[in-house]
Design a protein that fits this description.
This protein is α+β, with helices and mostly antiparallel strands and about 425 residues long. It folds into two domains: about 120 residues, no CATH class; about 280 residues, Aldolase class I (TIM Barrel), CATH 3.20.20.70. About 30% of the residues lie in helices and about 25% in strands. It has eleven helices and 21 strands. Strands 1, 2, 3, 4, 5, 6, 7, 8, 9, 10, 11, 12, 13 and 14 form a 14-stranded antiparallel β-sheet that branches. β17, α6 and β18 form a beta-alpha-beta unit. α2 packs across α3. The chain is globular. The C terminus is likely disordered.
Length: about 425
């Protein structure tokens, strides 16, 4: 078949196929770009292929025209990447008016070449401990049951047992494996209504893939799980998981738990994943012994920040102030950059982000493929604002410029224990 990148699609029978005449294209924003060899890597182990119902695949003809594969029942295909890979392009398709809304996953363009599947992505972090081969092991159910038997009244542990087995959550599983980064959900409430919230949707957006914790844990429940976990330098306890709201709303519980933990052990890292909308609370946690923080950000432009995060009672200024205070108290800060081709790599968005980073220095950028139906996001953005101005640089171009502008910044995908270097 030569070395050309061909369009991949699903037949009406649900089988994968490719079109020998059409070149693969990817979407960035609402533009279609031809996928070159430089854009593609072999489909990584641990990836999942998704059919995209109501979406006809697009490709580039020999004459350079974007064409639709319009056969009855044929649908576009996307890949969901494992952690450590950054998406460069969205799948390219023509959406039917009756197409269902897609669930909250990070859809990536796929191509076919040399008898194998390829994806438009980059490996941007290679910490081996997050390799899927270390998770969902045959002994996991036994480990869950043993720990639940040891702490039968701990409601957080019951939640984590469910997340570990039903949702295959790695940070939940690590609590039962007794290693690395373990998540402890603490907050059933949130002070934002992010469009791509994976634990609870109050807007008209897509169905959420996780249930949110439905109770307020006690300090004793937190310490009972965290203390036996914090036994090595590589151990991390993280507040702010996908199955909860904003952990700072449970700041009093976290503060007391951190205080008790640090009275008993100095080992390991205590981390929080947060929207950083409550600078005073974050500062109290820093003084109590918080080591690291990961702050989520869709855009450093206040208009687009409000559009996506829909914060209640705070804004981007409060986030910046929180970053400043964390830096002052020696907390290692990562920015959890929710990345979307055609938005994050817009020239105007890049300028805003770089200005923000110069004003509020952080130690690391964690690239996160934004999990959302892109059609929903673009349509909502057109209705409420407009697509941001400026040329699209491409995610690869964005990453290059980011590293050039901030050469000391760690750029990756995973949380580090304290100031663990990039691998």
């Amino acid at each position: 078949m030569g070395t050309k990148n061909k369009v991949v699609y699903a037949t009406a029978q649900g089988e994968l196929a490719f079109d020998p005449d059409l070149e693969a294209v990817g979407a960035t924003g609402e533009e279609f770009w031809e996928l070159t060899a430089a854009d593609l890597i072999p489909l990584p182990a641990g990836s999942t292929l998704f059919y995209l119902p109501g979406r006809a695949p697009l490709g580039l003809s020999a004459q350079g025209e974007v064409e639709t594969i319009a056969e009855q029942g044929v649908t576009a295909v996307a890949a969901i990447l494992p952690q450590g890979y950054t998406r460069l392009f969205l799948p390219a398709y023509q959406r039917a008016a009756t197409a269902p809304r897609l669930p909250l996953f990070g859809y990536t363009a796929v191509a076919y070449k040399d008898d194998r599947l390829w994806v438009a992505a980059r490996c941007t972090d290679e910490l081996k401990k997050w390799n899927p081969q270390f998770y969902n092991s045959p002994d996991l159910p036994r480990l869950v049951q043993e720990k639940l038997a040891r702490y039968p009244e701990n409601r957080i542990l019951k939640q984590l047992g469910h997340c570990a087995q039903a949702y295959h959550c790695f940070t939940a599983q690590n609590i039962f494996y007794g290693r690395w980064e373990g998540g402890i959900p603490v907050s059933p409430a949130c002070n934002a209504q992010c469009l791509g919230c994976i634990s609870k949707q109050v807007s008209e957006c897509c169905p959420s893939p996780q249930e949110r914790i439905g109770f307020q844990p006690t300090v004793a429940e937190v310490v009972e799980i965290a203390l036996p976990h914090l036994t090595t330098e590589e151990a991390i306890i993280s507040f702010g998981q996908g199955c909860e709201g904003e952990p700072l709303l449970a700041g009093a519980v976290i503060k007391e738990a951190i205080t008790l933990l640090r009275q008993k052990t100095k080992a390991g890292t205590i981390n929080i994943n947060t929207n950083a909308g409550l600078p005073d609370v974050l500062e109290e946690l820093a003084l109590a012994g918080l080591n690291t923080a990961r702050v989520s950000l869709f855009s450093a432009d206040p208009k687009y920040y409000r559009f996506y995060h829909q914060p209640r009672g705070y804004g981007l200024n409060q986030v910046g102030e929180a970053l400043r205070r964390l830096h002052r108290h020696g907390v290692f800060v990562s920015l959890n950059l929710l990345t979307l081709p055609g938005f994050t790599d817009r020239q105007s968005q890049m300028e805003r982000l770089f200005a923000f980073l110069h004003q509020y220095p952080v130690g690391m950028i964690q690239i996160r493929n934004l999990n959302i139906d892109p059609d929903y996001l673009w349509a909502k953005m057109r209705r409420e604002l407009k697509t941001p101005p400026g040329a699209i640089m491409g995610i690869d171009g964005f990453l290059t410029e980011l590293r050039k502008e901030f050469p000391e910044l760690i750029v990756g995908n995973y949380s580090r224990f304290r100031e663990e270097p990039s691998v």
